[in-house]
Amino acid sequence: MNRTVTITSKNHKYKNTYGGNIYMSDFCTDYEGSRNIADRIISDWKDDLSRHKQMENNIRSYRERKMNNGR
User: DSSP E strands: which ranges in 1-71?
Assistant: First the structure.
């Protein structure tokens, strides 16, 4: 059984990143199935990077529009 847990970061450095999903099996020491923890971490990092690039593109686009409209 998977349960979604949301953890709110109190550290500003990580405020805008996705922490990923935490599964009940992450805490089960006798779980014999595939955990794919490393794959999940890499996938979450790629998602964070993609969102960061999109945010930078949105900011750049906004600034260009603002400059072209004469402020």
Answer: none
Tokens of 47: 């998602």
pTM comes to: 0.53
Token pair, residue 56, equals 């930078």
CA distance 52 to 16: 9
45-69 per-position pLDDT tens digit: 888 889 889 999 999 999 999 888 8
Which helix (H) or strand (E) segment is 67 a member of?
Answer: helix 37-68
Going from the C-alpha of 2 to that of each of 17, 20, 37, the distances in angstroms are 22, 13, 14
CA angle (59 as vertex; 55, 62 as ends), nearest 5:
135
- Reduced to 3 states (helix: H, G, I; strand: E, B; else coil), residue 71 is coil
Mean pLDDT of the chain: 76
Give the pLDDT score at 8. 64
